[in-house]
Amino acid sequence: MRYPFWRVGVFIAAAIWPLLWLYQAWSFALGPDPGKVLVDRLGLGTLVLLLVTLSMTPLQKLSGWPGWIAVRRQLGLWCFAYVLLHLAAYLVFVLGLDWSQLGVELRKRPYIIVGTLGFLCLLALAVTSNRYSQRRLGRGWKKLHRLVYVILGLGLLHMLWIVRADLKEWTVYASIGVLLIVLRVPAVARRIPRLMAKKLISTTTRSL
User: Rounded distance, CA 46 to CA 38, Å?
Assistant: First the structure.
């Protein structure tokens, strides 16, 4: 396994936050409604991890370091783990496991439907993230995993629907998402290594 310490570091960095938030909720350090705070933090954590996962390919092209790609799958699986915890926290702390309220919630809060669609898409990517699925699906695997862009759109829409009154934070995440998508456009992606090579040559020339 390449870059073992880097992989372990990413694992610890991703795992520590849910554990910290759960401890804070248990110790009543999240205010009068710790359950809602926990749901919100896990949801935002999912979006952040999704953006971090999408940034791995551009970072590899910019730096030339393969380590970014080495942890991309792990980050994607952590993204699914976070959204799974987000859903579980919602069912436990908001619904109180009262399934009869789910229909009422869906009618009152349509953004839950958007979030559910995003969860189902992430589930499809998580289940097919292994090498067996890559071999089995062939070219269709890459097409399936382009759902990540749909997931990003659904996640941003889900967040926008919730934070309608304060768009500053949402705008930051949306801007980063748009930038990462633009960097993945083939015409732009092909130019990145060339630009970095020119910059490296220019820097080397100046130093001489």
Answer: 12
**Owner of token pair 């092209």:** 61
Cα 206 from chain centre: 40
Contact assessment for residue 95 and residue 102, using Cβ atoms and an 8 Å cutoff: yes
> Averaged over 87-112, what is the pLDDT?
85
**Alpha helix (H) residue ranges in the chain:** 4-26, 34-63, 67-70, 72-89, 102-108, 111-127, 131-137, 139-145, 147-162, 168-184, 186-207
Residue range 166-192, pLDDT digits in tens: 788 999 999 999 999 998 887 776 777
Rounded distance between C-alpha atoms, residue 126 and residue 184, angstroms: 21
**CB–CB of 174/152 below 8 Å?**
no
pLDDT tens-digit profile of 28-70? 888 888 999 999 999 999 999 999 999 999 999 888 899 999 9
Asked if pLDDT for residue 95 goes beyond 70, the answer is: yes
In the chain, the number of structural domains is 1
Contact between residue 25 and residue 37 where contact means Cβ atoms under 8 Å apart: yes
Which residue range(s) make up the domain with 198? 4-207
Give the global pTM.
0.89
In the block, tokens 């919730």 appear at 162
Phi, psi of 145 (to 5 degrees): -80, -5
Measured CA to CA, the distance from residue 28 to residue 22 in angstroms comes to 10
Tokens for 92, please give them: 């436990």
